[in-house]
């Protein structure tokens, strides 16, 4: 596998200042595993800390495997705080996205997405996206700081950990 | 979508047939990675032909499998809203009353999405954004419009003749 250089540029003509920070981060890689195998690792919240390259997740109770939009899974972060994660996009085996928020509260505004595209029976192109365009500028500073400090390399670290797990299973 | 909104990295296998069509693949990856942002632009009324990425996104979301999947998402949302709070998730942070109050409109939306007929990309984008926007009435009390009203707007925009009607 060869890492491609980071892409960051004008995608559709709407230029802004060079100083502005990207609010949609994405990383993709091919994983030598069936899409279903990979998806199980993502859709079961109890397994998510095992591939978290963001060093953020603590633990999730078993039995929360996600099956569709509208479901909520609960995740305890490494720092001890608890998040409700609302599933907002879901296609079994292909797509899952969720918006975290404080327990019982409305979503904070950022979103994590995983998309799986089978290349063939044993290879899958996986795209992981962190989108914080919906996070209001008046959000609590620790949350904004965390969003600002998230990089594509962190997403790639999750992808690599996920690949190691999926390819080893 | 602008350059400040997006940063990406990708890893591809050398010799992979995907690399041969790297530009097309890059377009596809970008279109997916920034899909929610593109959906918001389409939902707001930006024409698909405005940019290459918007056109790619519009083409993707109007496909029948994609629309069927979106309809399935709305169906699952309804089922979740009907469930009583469980011991495992004692306080589901959705707005079940709002969702169930819009059940008729959701049913109508699902029917339009799954019909094997052409649809307008703006309507599909509007139906999708209602699920991914944190300020959507599905999740938030802050919005000025009801969920049923927002769904009816999406249903209207699913009519592929809508842009022509506005132009007339």
**Residues in β-strands, percent of chain A:** 25-35%
Helix content of chain A: 10-25%
Q: Major sheet of chain A, described briefly? A: 7 strands, antiparallel
Span of the ends, CA to CA of chain A: 19 Å
Q: Tally the structural domains of chain B.
A: 1
One letter per element, helices H and strands E, the order of chain B comes to: EHHHHHHHHHH
Helix proportion of residues of chain B, in percent?
55-70%
Count of beta strands of chain B:
1
Structural class of chain A: alpha+beta
**If classified by CATH, what would the architecture of chain A be?**
2-Layer Sandwich
CATH class of chain A: Alpha Beta
Query: How many domains make up the coordinates of chain A?
Result: 1
The rough form of chain B would be described as globular
Could you walk me through the main structural features you see in this protein, from its secondary elements to its overall organization?
The complex is a heterodimer of chains A (169) and B (168). With 169 residues, chain A is of the alpha+beta class. Chain A is built from 3 helices and 8 strands. Chain A has a 7-stranded antiparallel beta sheet with strand order 2-8-7-6-5-4-3, covered by helices on one side. The two termini of chain A are 19 Å apart. In chain B, helix 3 crosses helix 8. Chain B is globular. Chain B starts with 5 loop residues before the first strand and ends with a helix. Chains A and B meet through strand 1, strand 2, strand 5, strand 6 and strand 7 of A and strand 1, helix 2, helix 4 and helix 5 of B.
């Amino acid at each position: 596998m060869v890492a491609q250089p980071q892409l960051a540029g004008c995608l559709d003509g709407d230029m802004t200042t060079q100083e502005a920070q990207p609010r949609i981060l994405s990383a993709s890689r091919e994983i030598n595993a069936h899409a279903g195998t990979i998806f199980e690792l993502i859709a079961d919240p109890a397994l998510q800390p095992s591939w978290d390259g963001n060093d953020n997740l603590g633990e999730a109770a078993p039995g929360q495997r996600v099956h569709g939009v509208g479901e909520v899974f609960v995740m305890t972060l490494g720092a001890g705080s608890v998040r409700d994660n609302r599933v907002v996009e879901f296609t079994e085996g292909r797509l899952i996205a969720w918006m975290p928020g404080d327990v019982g509260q409305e979503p904070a505004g950022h979103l994590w997405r995983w998309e799986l595209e089978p290349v063939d029976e044993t290879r899958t192109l996986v795209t992981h996206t962190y989108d914080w365009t919906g996070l209001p500028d008046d959000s609590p500073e620790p949350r904004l700081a965390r969003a600002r400090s998230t990089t594509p390399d962190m997403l790639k670290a999750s992808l690599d950990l996920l690949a190691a797990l999926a390819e080893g299973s | 979508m602008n350059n400040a909104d997006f940063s990406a990295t990708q890893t591809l296998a050398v010799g992979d047939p995907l690399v041969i069509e790297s530009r097309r693949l890059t377009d596809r990856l970008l279109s997916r990675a920034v899909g929610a942002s593109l959906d918001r632009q389409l939902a707001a009324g930006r024409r698909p032909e405005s940019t290459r990425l918007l056109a790619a996104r519009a083409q993707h979301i109007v496909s029948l499998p994609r629309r069927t999947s979106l309809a399935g998402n709305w169906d699952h949302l309804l089922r979740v809203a009907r469930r009583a709070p469980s011991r495992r998730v004692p306080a589901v942070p959705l707005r079940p009353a709002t969702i169930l109050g819009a059940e008729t409109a959701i049913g109508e939306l699902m029917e339009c999405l799954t019909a094997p007929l052409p649809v307008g990309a703006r309507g599909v984008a509007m139906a999708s954004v209602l699920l991914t926007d944190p300020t959507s009435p599905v999740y938030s009390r802050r919005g000025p419009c009801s969920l049923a009203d927002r769904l009816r707007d999406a249903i209207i925009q699913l009519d592929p003749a809508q842009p022509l009607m506005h132009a007339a």
